[in-house]
Amino acid sequence: MYTENGLRDFLSTNGRVVLEKAGSDYVLRSFTEKEIEKITFGYSILLGKGAFGEVYRGMLSKRPVAVKRYINRTRKEEFAREVIVHSHINHKNVVRLLGCCTEENALMIVMEFISNGNLENLLHYNHANGRIPLPLPKRLDIATVSAEVLAYMHSMYRPVLHGDIKPANILLDENLTPKISDFGIARLLSADEVQHTASIIGCRGYVDPIYCQSGILTPKSDIYSFGVVLLEIVTRKKAVERNSTLVQTFNDALRAKKVKQLFDEEIADARNMKFLLQIGKLAAKCLKLDVTMRPEMPDIADCLRMLRKDMQREQGSTSQGFFF
């Protein structure tokens, strides 16, 4: 944990990482607390809140932005990590980091605003006109692009482990194109580095049980979490309901050979069934307790791309949801 001036020292030490170009046109901006207050209209439009603090909508140079405000000032290390790790990632399907405020009592991150909420809300909550229809091609698009982003992160020169993959951290734009967000507990690895964590991080229902036992976060931990996300996408069931987890329910259905009954009725028709079973099979591999049996993220992305191409070929390019 950092002392009173520790965060400033930390960011100063890592200033090259935080403020340098992370891509040919990617430069982070430093904001003052007064500038943030103006951008957010006095913190008047609350988008959401969590253990870390609050997220507000604002306007910067006539474009909407989201401002993440750390309320808990003891989370300086998490804030610093989020800025540093996020600044390393320059991918069109990662929420774009625009800048930060590092004043002692005003730790804030400014990001692009993503207009359509997140995958959790889309899958599990009713909207003004009821549940939004979500055809399988669109679900497969979301899964494929999300896997491609994670494959990119895991394959970087200094790999990034997200550590908190779940539908709430997969934001959706106006076309339901996914963008990965929230790098507060992410880790940036060096060659051959083992990532121990002082306590178990992540969300119940998504956390890799092997990581819980060892305390060592690896790319396979993200893969386990992504397997849970795949199950949510095809079942439209929450990762945790009452005292049961979706993984437990899925494993029980596997043993009873009743997996088909888990799939969301909206998409579980004869035309889609073989693709749903393939996605379920891929999810099962991601959830293996033997981590050596779990596929790598690039292989998962390849598998989903092939499924998407097969579905497009069989069902036609007019199938609702395909990006290409």
Automatic annotation (TrEMBL):
<comment type="similarity">
    <text>Belongs to the protein kinase superfamily.</text>
</comment>
<keyword id="KW-0723">Serine/threonine-protein kinase</keyword>
<feature type="binding site">
    <location>
        <position position="68"/>
    </location>
    <ligand>
        <name>ATP</name>
    </ligand>
</feature>
<dbReference type="Pfam" id="PF07714">
    <property type="entry name" value="PK_Tyr_Ser-Thr"/>
</dbReference>
<keyword id="KW-0067">ATP-binding</keyword>
<dbReference type="GO" id="GO:0005886">
    <property type="term" value="C:plasma membrane"/>
</dbReference>
<keyword id="KW-0418">Kinase</keyword>
<keyword id="KW-0808">Transferase</keyword>
<keyword id="KW-0547">Nucleotide-binding</keyword>
<dbReference type="InterPro" id="IPR001245">
    <property type="entry name" value="Ser-Thr/Tyr_kinase_cat_dom"/>
</dbReference>
<dbReference type="InterPro" id="IPR011009">
    <property type="entry name" value="Kinase-like_dom_sf"/>
</dbReference>
<feature type="domain" description="Protein kinase">
    <location>
        <begin position="41"/>
        <end position="307"/>
    </location>
</feature>
<protein>
    <recommendedName>
        <fullName>Protein kinase domain-containing protein</fullName>
    </recommendedName>
</protein>
<dbReference type="InterPro" id="IPR017441">
    <property type="entry name" value="Protein_kinase_ATP_BS"/>
</dbReference>
<dbReference type="GO" id="GO:0007166">
    <property type="term" value="P:cell surface receptor signaling pathway"/>
</dbReference>
<dbReference type="InterPro" id="IPR008271">
    <property type="entry name" value="Ser/Thr_kinase_AS"/>
</dbReference>
<dbReference type="GO" id="GO:0004674">
    <property type="term" value="F:protein serine/threonine kinase activity"/>
</dbReference>
<dbReference type="GO" id="GO:0005524">
    <property type="term" value="F:ATP binding"/>
</dbReference>
<dbReference type="InterPro" id="IPR045274">
    <property type="entry name" value="WAK-like"/>
</dbReference>
<dbReference type="InterPro" id="IPR000719">
    <property type="entry name" value="Prot_kinase_dom"/>
</dbReference>
